[in-house]
Write the structure tokens for this entry.
Amino acid sequence: MNAPSPYKNKIELLQGTLDMLILKTLQWGPHHGYGIVQALRLQSGEVLQVETGSLYPALHRLERQGWVRSEWKQSATKQRARYYRITARGKRQLASDLSRWEQIAKAINSIMQASPQESET
Amino acid sequence: MNRPWRIGIWHRKNDLREEIEAHLQMSIADRVARGEPYEDARQAAIREFGNVSIVQEVTRETWGWVWLENLARDLRYALRHLRRSPGFALSAVAIIAVGIAVTTAIFSVVYAVVLQPLPFARPNQLVDVSAKPLPWLSLPTIQDWQRNSQAFQSIAAFGGWSPRIESSAGLGHANAELVSQNFVRTLGLNFALGHDFTQTGNESDCFGQAIVTYSYWRRMGGGNTLEHQAIHLDYRTYAIAGVLEPDAALQEMEALGEPSILTPIGCDPAKSPQSRGDEDFGAIGRLYPGISLQNASSQLLARQRVLSGEFPHDYSSAFTPILIPLADYISGTNTRSALFATLAACGMLLLIACANLINLLLARNMRRRSEFALRATLGAMPRHLVRQMLAENCLLSISGSIIGITLSALLVRALTHLSVIHLPRLAHAQVNLPVLGFAGSITLFVALLLTLLPALRSVRPGLLHDLTYAGFRGSSGSLGLRRAGRFLVAAQLAMAFVLVASTGWMVASVFILLHQPLGFEPDHLLIASTDLRGPTRNSTMAPPKIIAVLDHALAEVRMLPGVAQVAAANDKPLGGRVNRYDFCSDVHPDDCKHPASTTPDVFQVTPEYFHTVGQQIDQGRSFNSGDDGQNHVAIVNHALAVQQWPGQSPIGHRIYTGDLHSWATVVGEVGDVHSYSLERAPVPNLYLPESDRPDTSMTIFIRTQGNPSEMDETVRRVLRSDSEIEVRYVESMPELMAHQVAVRRFSMWMISVFGAMALALSILGTYALLAYEVSVREREIGIRLALGSPRPAIVALLVGQESPWIAAGMALGLLGAVLVGFLLRAEFYHTKAASMPVLLSAAVLLGLSALAAIAVPSRRASLLDPSTTLRQE
């Protein structure tokens, strides 16, 4: 068993960020829940471990919103699993999420990098 | 619950379980592939996944159905709980059922009579057109009002007619009405069969047409063809031109004369047989879209001002047009306020019943304190406990309301079929969608009301205290709970006081109305309204001819067996119209030059009139056959004598009246009568001999020896055999009076029933509270007795503790009753005089009953045997 590494402790995702990440992951093709967790972990460089208690409610919520659709399929290893696929509306949502995210990231960045003198003027 | 949808939930639940299982399997497979042993891999996968059931639960929450599962659980639990105390559950359901049944039934009547839109096209555009001081209009006035009007698309006239009706539906039993040609068009009614009146230009063709309502058509045998279908009105044949659609239930609208048959007033509007002074008709106008009632009113007022200038002799100075929405006119202002008052009384009764139930619940919850405390310690949040209580109360009120709605459907059927009361459109009352909506909201309201106070009192349990003393009957209950109970009893008494006082006022109103001095003798009096010009309404009839026709008719009727006296007048008491002309007396001769609004109503009467109707002759003499129209004599009533010659005898004074266009000498003074209605006080009246200025529209008064209603058919036959007389209607005076108080009487009965129930319920509540109090304090009372307290002191202690609350409730009730009495003063007739006695007797009735209700348990408490009560624990 690998010892729990510090980054495996919960990184609280910003509200709404998980939805964006899931949609982004699904952009590469349909995935099941387990696959999404793995993909997020790998792509984040092992930093993000999404809790199943957040993932499944998020997936079901996204499906209710009509941003993803699901169907039961056989995986490569013959395991029957529920695959989620992004919809056209989901793609539009992702695009708007992304631009909003970029704005926020830029704003936070500029605050964090500002020198004290500048902020006082 | 509907099944496919439940299957949906099950399906999704299984789906989620499988989805999670797949997740775990893939996780295990990955780990096994990396070389971990299967069992370790499984453990790790499960650990990594986290708590499966929590994941399932939070995921399911996104479906939005969890509350439903919670509700189902709460309801199951509530059901189990109520089953454990069936006595409580049954009585609670019964109380709610009765409350909801009565409230819903009354509401369905209110809905059908008042709230439901009229069955006419675009009913909001329809207005009733009438006038002050009395509502009737003449045809020329109506025509002038609608000519080139910017406000009215059209104004239709209608007038009552009560002919002898014979058709394939049989003889009689329907009302006919004279209507203007545009009547059906104005109301926007459609025809099930046939068409509107046709105008051929030939007067006689035009008169011979009738339009019937669908229900009358059904009674005539129905069918799809109008061929060979005719009705006979007063022995003349009318072809049926059209049959109205079933929804247009004109025959139920009392304000319109409940007509089943419509016939034209006249055909060529230009050749109206009516003169401007013949104010015989009601009118209905249809406004142009977007024209407001105020706008139409001011336009009409301006037009009437011009007309009054043109025809100063035809309109009194007080004559003012009035518009009210047709819906209000048809439901009737009195009916509407009476019904709403009844509904309010009913709501109050429901509140009293709820207060009683809340007391029951409080007492029950006190016994459940240990249960609530235990659940709270096990982690139930206050909101869970409240939800649980709400579920129980919902269960109670929903079962109560299902029974209540069923009951109310029966009640409504009874009300509409037993013809307990005659209300417009009452026959349409049924438990329909809006009524169900109302019942549903009431049910929810009851459930919330039942939960609110007990929840506030019970969900903050003193855990330790409640667990420790759980089930220990010696503990005398939390003070707060008992205060809540007493507060509720006080509130019940206050509401009961208001209802009992209102009952008193209603009863007093009806009693005063029916037993006030009328100024004449209504028993054994039959009245027949006639038109001496006959059915053709030929307006040119010579005065001597009129007298001859009338004398002949009176003589014919006088010869009938069972008839004691006969007379005629051009109007009747309790339903008279305004008949005002310029007037002045010898003391104020200038009054004739500037018309005053205080001019008396003028009646033309035959010599026997005062004797026949039983009107008192105070001074001087009655008319006699010597008053032949040449000597110009007059009789005044007491009100007119006091108005003109205060403190003097009117005999010998002279008056001028525009009716005669001359002066006349007063020869007598008679007592006052209610000439307009039971509810309107007597006004100054002037009586002239019929022979002085013969009128063709005469009411014949017949004093009978037996029941006047039995003479109805005979009198009609005799009068109609004289082809020159048209009979409008025949009615007995007691019938007419009963009709005038019918709505009041209905409200009186309803509110009396509610008042009695309110009294019983609130006394029961008072009794139950004290009985409960005594049962809880048995031990304390036992100790007091054991320590030597005398028994009367125990009674005094308990009564003394409760009395302030009862007194407070009564004081509040008194205040409420005075307020209600003020708000409903229009509803109660002349009850100012009865106000104090009613309030006083309500206070005594309620106070004594409440004292008795607390005295009985107090006495029982004082009779306890301390040796048994103390050993019980």
